[in-house]
Amino acid sequence: MISMIMVLNQKGDVMISRQYRDDVSRTAADSFRLSVVAAKETGTQAPVKRIENCSFLYTRHLNMYFVALTRSNVNPALVFEYLFQKIRILKAYLGEEFDENSMRNNMTLIYELMDETMDFGYPQNCAVDVLRLYINLGSIRPQDEPEPSQLTSQITGAIDWRREGIKHKRNEVYIDVLESVNLLLSSTGTVLRNEVTGQVQMNTKLTGMPECKFGLNDKLVIEREDTGQRKPGVEIDDCTFHRCVRLGKFDADRTITFIPPDGEFELMRYRVNDNINVPFRFIPAVQEEHGHTRVSIDLKVIANFSDQLFATNVIIKIPVPKNTAKAKIKASFGRAKYEPEHQGILWRVKRFPGKAECHITAEVELMPTVRPKPWNRPPINVEFQVPMFTASGVHVRFLRVYDKSGYHTQRWVRYITKAGNYQIRI
Q1: What CA–CA distance (Å, rounded) separates 375 from 364?
Q2: CA 287 to chain centre
Q3: What is the pLDDT of residue 140?
Q4: Which of left, alpha, beta for 254 (phi over 0: left; psi -120 to 50: alpha)?
Q5: For position 158, what pLDDT does the model report?
Q6: What is the rounded radius of gyration, in angstroms, for the C-alpha atoms of the chain?
Q7: Neighbour-count burial of 311, counting CB atoms closer than 10 A to its CB (0-12 exposed, 13-18 middle, 19+ buried)
Q8: What is the predicted pLDDT for the residue at 396?
Q9: Burial (0-12, 13-18, 19+ Cβ within 10 Å), 231
Q10: Could you say which residues of the chain have pLDDT below 50?
Q11: CA–CA separation, 201 and 265 (whole Å)
Q12: pLDDT at position 150, please?
């Protein structure tokens, strides 16, 4: 596994190093300084360098290099995840923009963190909340300091993301289902790419150590339960979960069971490719007149979602040729303006009602050029946000909270769909 962790400054000098195995030495820093730092390879080459039978895996924070050394055939994803977690821990202790001076002023703290987060080259506990309970150098004192027995179970136990003894006056759970629609339409209206990527964000304010059971309208679960409901489920692919979720239960029966962290966290991510309800439909018509002196643009936009909903902050960027002199624009509602710095007409609509149709026309006058070049016609780009709507059809079926005290839990669910890479060719 990992033999040594080093932190170097922009000159290549070693600020901090911690050796976990004896198969490498600090002289390896000279090889890294000459081959990477002095050669200015960062950002141009892969962050993995093989020098004298030793692998250097590195990443940067501001002007510092965080480097892992190993002579074994390690999983690079694991090493980089540890380095990123290390930077995240230091941000929590030293501030988001910690620099070389703050590192030098907190050497004792950093060495303690190095010893707690790695043992004999194997990554260990990297949970900030748990580390803060017993590494604070006297500057941070937890409000509810745990008993030694509780502390031991948190450090070595399976549930290091939540401590015991948490109490809230009101037990509440806030659930946000956030989706991004990625769409690419051809100029004839054919769908070239259509997918939705989503994530479920939660904010839990629950007392004790509750166990939660979470359910979406997953097609496999609904077909297995055979509830007789009319609405079919959604085929959910590529699910990734927070580490609190019991993956064995999910693999066995697609049940999402977990003991949640306290506060905000991302429960899961997913992807949907089939039966996507596209929020907006576009009908473009772009015509270039002979002589390359004028371009006529006609665009119709139709909202496909319910008339009880509305989209906010809709921005439609309609590209125009680079040699555009001026544009005469008429929009049914919203504001549209030719903006040369964006090389296009930006049409902004603050509030777009569902099932509504809007229309924009533009007469674009072009400046004559010595060597006319054909216009490559970039696609129309769209930005929007639709509250309480999911393009994939995913919705929360239930959230059950089980605790030995049997308290009542308030549940709040919010849906938001926004544009990801939403493009229409013209």
Answers
A1: 13
A2: 39
A3: 46
A4: left
A5: 56
A6: 28
A7: buried
A8: 93
A9: exposed
A10: 138-145, 149
A11: 6
A12: 53
Compute the residue count for the chain: 426
Tokens 């777009």, residue located: 352
Residue-wise pLDDT for 38-69, tens only, equals 777 666 788 898 888 889 999 999 889 999 99
CB 13 within 8 A of CB 134: no
* Token reading at 413: 């669910």
Nearest residue to 358 via CA among 314, 412, 401, 395: 314
Q: Tell me, what's the pLDDT at 422?
A: 95
265 in Cβ contact with 242 (< 8 Å): yes
| 167 alpha carbon, distance to own chain's centre | 30
Q: What is the pLDDT of residues 295-345, one digit of tens each?
A: 999 999 999 999 999 999 999 999 999 989 999 999 998 999 999 999 999
